[in-house]
Hints:
Layout: E1 9-16, E2 23-28, E3 37-38, E4 41-43, H1 50-62, E5 64-77, E6 80-92, E7 100-106, H2 108-116, H3 124-130
Parallel strand pairs: 1-6
Antiparallel strand pairs: 1-4, 2-3, 2-7, 5-6
Amino acid sequence: MEAPGDATIRCVGGIAFDPHGRLLLIRRANDPGSGQWSLPGGRVEPGETDKEAVVRELSEETGLDVIPGTLVGTVTRGRYEIHDYRCAVAGGVLTAGDDATDARWSDAADLSALEAGGELVDLLYVTLRDWNALPRA
């Protein structure tokens, strides 16, 4: 029998780009990946749909209002099953908040530099590449 502490935790993430094709990233305040750059997102709360969770999490972590779109892909990181959705930014002002210590738009060169410097959460770059979701700029 599975212990309650071993249960899979459903999470969501948002893949959003600005008009210049730069990818939205946050620096994680907490583990897993504390201090590293990642996609904004977090746990799906009881009674919430994935899309409601994406809207809430991105608002809390980035100050941006988003409209969630299609599911881009799903990854499992330890106990966390993360469903990443493409998002369109509808408003707000980019400001780090909640579980994020910083937030930024990252172009292709910046994202590559973060990857080379070990500043991205594990496997983020390769996952985004495999999903054809790297910054265009």
